[in-house]
Write a structure and sequence with these properties.
With about 230 residues, the chain is an all-alpha fold. It has 5 helices and no strands. It is about 90% helix and about 0% strand.
Length: about 230
């Protein structure tokens, strides 16, 4: 091999090694990012619960102020003619409550806006995390299957001398077993010939009994008696 080809081969091997290392590192980084994202989502969820609780308290306060405004407004109207001074006091209280309500409403609007934004961001983050986890799991699963396939190919292909020797031994064992089965079958056939059972079997197959009919045997017995 020329120096140029050797250098190209070494360079290609080095690049592949660097790429493999970078890919492995990338999965490690993504795993870490997923763990951190889960922690942040958990913290975000806790913040959302806190904001929701504060929003609820603010809503109750606004509702309470509104109830007081309506109460004192009604009182002011009722005493406008009968008790002017009391009516003015009620009207002044309504003005104070209106200011408090406006301030609290501003706080409530801020809570509502923040809660809505946080809910949207949390849903987006959860969806992105779910898709990232799915892609990483898919890559890891494919990587594991491919490693198993490569390992199986390496262990069982013909290039592995140990496996080749074992496969050769397996073939010899199968051959010996086949020869033994043949020997047992031949010995059985020989035994049948020696005992005459083979001839009897042939006669039975040909439709004969092998020993003559009962009439013939009885005639022979009677002849011997004479």
């Amino acid at each position: 091999m020329s120096l140029g080809r050797l250098w190209s081969a070494l360079k290609g091997h080095t690049n592949k090694a660097l790429e493999d290392a970078a890919d492995t590192q990338a999965l490690t980084i993504l795993d870490q990012q997923i763990r951190e994202a889960k922690q942040e989502i958990q913290q975000c969820g806790q913040s959302l619960h806190s904001i929701a609780a504060k929003r609820k308290l603010s809503q109750n306060k606004v509702a309470s102020l509104q109830a007081d405004i309506e109460k004192y407004s009604q009182s002011a109207a009722e005493h406008a003619e009968s008790n002017r001074e009391l009516a003015l006091e009620c009207a002044q209280r309504v003005g104070e409550l209106d200011g408090l309500k406006a301030s609290e409403q501003s706080i409530l609007d801020s809570y509502i806006k923040n809660e809505s934004t946080l809910k949207s961001n949390l849903a987006t983050a959860k969806n992105n995390l779910r898709m990232l986890e799915q892609q990483v799991d898919q890559v890891k699963a494919t990587q594991a299957v491919q490693k198993a396939q490569v390992a199986a190919s390496t262990h069982f292909d013909g290039g592995n001398s140990k496996v080749k020797t074992a496969l050769d031994s397996l073939e010899r064992i199968k051959q010996k077993q086949a020869e033994k089965d043949a020997a047992i079958e031949a010995a059985s056939e020989l035994a049948e010939l020696e005992t005459g059972s083979d001839l009897d079997a042939k006669l039975r197959n040909a439709g004969g009994s092998g020993g003559g009919s009962s009439e013939d045997m009885l005639a022979k017995i009677l002849a011997n008696k004479k």
